[in-house]
Amino acid sequence: MNRIPSHDFPLAIRTDFSDDEAWDAFVAAMDEPDGGDDSVADVELFDDPAYRDLTSDELMQLLPEDYEDSFFVVVDGPALASPELPVLIVDLLHEPGRSFRVTAAELPEIEANLSISNMDFFDYADSVEEDGVFRGFPERGDASRALRGAGD
């Protein structure tokens, strides 16, 4: 199998092709500003059926030789089966292959912080909920709820 072509941003690799509407929802979510600072995820969407059903380990072996990002994202069946679109994010720096799921809504924050090394992969991986999905830090959620309530 051929290596994935080089890209300028961290890759979000589609491996499930059973639901085009769910994929379209993920693509749209990547263009929607997140709730915090209106940032969007700077990820390169890679949509090639040749990579259908590959695992994160298999994809790691096919990343471009010049891939410089510390992580990549897998948009797989479990991600597209849920309205939260919990994609798999895979570490390439500290513990290569370690992964966790993150909702599409939280991906912009993670992408931004990991891309500039403001936070480490484990900061997020160690903060997933019981089901293995990162939905944001509880403190931030509580603070933003308090701020919204203060304006009422």
TrEMBL record:
Lineage: Bacteria, Bacillati, Actinomycetota, Actinomycetes, Kitasatosporales
Domain DUF6924: 11-137
Protein name: DUF6924 domain-containing protein
Origin species: Streptomyces armeniacus
